[in-house]
Design goal:
Layout (H helix, E strand, L loop, with lengths): L1 H6 L1 H10 L4 E6 L11 E8 L2 H10 L6 E4 L5 E3 L4 E8 L6 E3 L3 E5 L4 H10 L2 E2 L11 H7 L2 E2 L2 E2 L4 E8 L6 E5 H4 L12 E9 L1 E2 L5 H18 L18 H8 L6 E2 L2 E3 L7 E3 L5 H19 L8 E3 L4
Parallel strand pairs: 2-5, 3-5, 4-18
Antiparallel strand pairs: 1-2, 6-7, 7-13, 8-14, 9-10, 11-12, 11-13, 15-16, 16-17
Helix pairs in contact: 4-7
Length: about 300
């Protein structure tokens, strides 16, 4: 980490010159994730406009790794940290514009905020987002879903800036986004600036029903999923089955522990990080669960969490 930081110091200096006051070097990164483990980033830059991303593209060479950080709810950072540049969208990308049958939200908008604003405006269709602790950009990148619905069912287009080119932005169609089960065609150098979703207007006297739907989802998640330091579901569900069932009912791994990390007693597809846990603890437990399930069932679970800074 230190060697990379020294060798790339001129890059961060130039980036700070072009975007004064918005570049932090050797800045805490793991603490910005919901697991709250892991080391620093070589540089974190906060962008406030689409033009800022063009500056990042022009200043940071393509051999430097890029990471777009939303709400850190699907990210595990190695204890050694991340040697690249982390892009954080500023408050200008947190707006929500409600139309008659569509809603456009900035990439930094928290999904629960989007769900609640739509309900308050009498727009149905995005209520499932209230239980997903991520951002709009993350939802597009991972085709986030829950309670029987996925992003691909409601999104109509997204504005994406491409740092692998010149940082300029254009609208992507749903087909171009390539949304699949917890995946998309977006690479690490592509940044979701906003997304537009289809919604259905309801009569004014029906808005309370929308709010009630949100309360039910929040209550369900509280009853069935753990709080504390975790990153939601760790593994994708294999076709025709559930990762939690394989981990718990088939392999009996509920409560399995590595150091300060443990398979949740409440939901076996969640891994909790106790106070004092390390990223190595979490990663070691992910690998142990994956290997055990593969040995006992022949099914190798795919990891849904994005791991950065690890040698493999």
């Amino acid at each position: 980490m230190a060697d990379a930081g020294v060798s790339r110091a001129p890059i961060w200096t130039e980036l700070d010159r072009r975007l004064p006051g918005r570049v932090r070097r050797d800045a805490p990164l793991g603490a910005l994730t919901t697991w709250r483990v892991g080391g620093p980033a070589a540089a974190i830059v906060q962008v406030e406009t689409a033009a800022d991303l063009e500056v990042v593209a022009a200043t940071v060479p393509p051999d430097v790794e890029r990471l777009v950080l939303g709400r850190g709810s699907n990210l595990l950072v190695a204890d050694a940290g991340f040697e690249g540049v982390v892009i954080v969208l500023g408050s200008a990308f947190g707006t929500v514009e409600v139309g008659d049958r569509s809603v456009t939200a900035g990439g930094a908008t928290a999904l629960p905020v989007l769900a609640r604003q739509c309900a308050a405006s009498g727009r149905a269709g995005l209520g499932f987002y209230v239980g997903i602790p991520g951002s709009v950009g993350g939802a597009v990148r991972m085709n986030a879903g829950g309670h029987g619905r996925e992003t691909v069912e409601v999104i109509t287009a997204a504005t994406v800036a491409d740092l692998d080119q010149d940082g300029s932005a254009r609208r992507w169609t749903v087909a171009e986004l390539g949304l699949g089960y917890r995946t998309s065609a977006l690479g690490p150098g592509q940044v979701v600036l906003d997304a537009t979703f289809a919604v259905t207007p309801v009569p004014a006297d029906a808005t309370e029903e929308l709010r009630a739907e949100l309360r039910e989802i929040v209550q369900w998640r509280s009853e069935h999923q753990p709080g504390g330091a975790n990153a939601g579901s760790v593994f994708r569900n294999p076709s025709g089955d559930a990762a939690a069932r394989l981990i718990d009912e088939v392999c009996g791994l509920r409560g399995m522990r590595r150091g300060g990390a443990a398979v949740s007693e409440k939901h076996a597809n969640f891994i909790q990080a106790d106070e004092g846990a390390t990223a190595a603890d979490v990663r070691g437990l992910i690998d142990a669960v994956r290997d055990t399930v593969a040995e006992r069932t022949g099914i190798r679970l795919d990891v849904e969490v994005h791991c950065v800074g690890f040698e493999d």
